Structure formats: C-alpha cells, structure tokens
C-alpha cells in the first residue's frame, strides 16, 4: 500500500542499491529502534520516494498541536504523537519539533533521536535478567552484568556497591 507523507519509517532490507522501508511503531522494539526518517512525500508500493532524516518536513497537518511541541513516534504504524511520547511500555523515539502550526502548510524540523534500552549500552551485558537481580560492576570484563546480591544485602546496599 502507499505510505503517506509524514510517516515514520525504518529500513527493512534492500533490493540492489535501493532501501526497502516499512512503517515504524512505538509498540515494538524491532520497528521503533530502527526508526530512521520521515517520508517527504507519499510513496506508492514498489515505487521510489524522498525521505527526510534531518531538516524540514513541510506542507503537512500540524493543526492538532502548538509551535515548539515535541514530535514522537506513535503507537499506530507510521504515526506521529505530539507533545509527549506514548506511555510505557511503548518506546520513546523523538522525531523533531513542530515549527509551524497549520492544517495544510504546517512544518516539522526533523531530527530523529532514538532512545536506548539498558542492554544496548556498550558497557552493559545483562544477558537474561531475572526478577530481583541487580547490575553489578565486573572489573575483569569492564562491564555491568546482571546478578544476585548474596548475604541478604538490601536494595540500598546494592546501589552503594554499584557506585563503589
């Protein structure tokens, strides 16, 4: 189907030198974490089209919000959410800021910034975390790892150990 102008998309593959795109959604990590651009025009199925990674997306409906409002990835595939990101457990993906408010000539300054989850940080290796585990610094690998604190240590002590 046609992807509408102003839709949030991510790259799902390639054919030759051409990227293939699909609609992003804040409800799942596979599509939200790879959100890359907004479509600058409607793009028909199996057609070429322009996208915006950083810059102005113009001539779209921004009448439901105010100038200066943050633009976030919405829960509905390809949608935008204004002012606040969708509630957790949805993923917060910042897409830009509303510059001009109008029903047909609105504009957004696009600058996609994807948030990170804890286990995506380069020095965190949480493996398969289980209930009640904490992050503990492992000097031998220079990483934070998940593990259980022994000896009946309370949660306050875990934070002290992590900061020590």
Rg over C-alpha atoms, rounded to the nearest angstrom: 20 Å
Largest sheet geometry: 5 strands, antiparallel
Report the order of strands and helices: EEHEEEEEEEEEEH
Structural class assignment: mainly beta
Count of DSSP strands: 12
Strand content: 35-45%
- Name the helicity range: under 10%
Low-confidence stretches: 157-164
Q: Mean pLDDT across all residues, rounded? A: 88
Spatial strand order of the main sheet: 5-9-8-6-7
Question: Helical region count?
Answer: 2
Looking at the structure, what is the overall shape? elongated
Report, as a whole number of angstroms, the end-to-end distance. 55 Å
Summarize the structure.
This protein has 164 residues and is mainly β. It has helices at residues 29-32, 155-163, and strands at 8-15, 18-23, 35-39, 51-52, 54-60, 70-73, 80-82, 93-100, 106-114, 124-125, 134-138, 143-147.
Can you offer a commentary on this structure?
It contains two helices and twelve strands. It is elongated, with a radius of gyration of 20 Å. By secondary structure, it is mainly beta.
Jot down its keywords.
five-stranded antiparallel beta sheet; mainly beta; four-stranded antiparallel beta sheet; disordered C terminus; 164 residues
């Amino acid at each position: 189907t046609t992807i509408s102008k102003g839709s949030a998309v991510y790259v799902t593959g390639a054919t030759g030198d051409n990227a293939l795109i699909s609609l992003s959604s804040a409800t799942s990590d596979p599509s939200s974490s790879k959100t890359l651009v907004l479509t600058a025009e409607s793009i028909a199925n199996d057609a070429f089209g322009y996208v915006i990674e950083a810059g102005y997306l113009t001539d779209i409906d921004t009448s439901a919000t105010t100038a200066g409002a943050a633009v976030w990835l919405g829960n509905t595939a390809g949608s935008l959410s204004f002012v606040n990101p969708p509630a957790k457990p949805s993923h917060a993906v910042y897409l830009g800021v509303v510059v001009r408010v109008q029903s047909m000539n609105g504009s957004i300054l696009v600058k996609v910034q994807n948030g990170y989850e804890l286990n995506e940080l380069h020095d965190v290796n949480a493996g398969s975390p289980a209930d009640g585990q904490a992050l503990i610094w492992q000097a031998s690998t220079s990483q934070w790892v998940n593990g259980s604190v022994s000896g009946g240590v309370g949660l306050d002590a875990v934070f002290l150990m992590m900061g020590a």
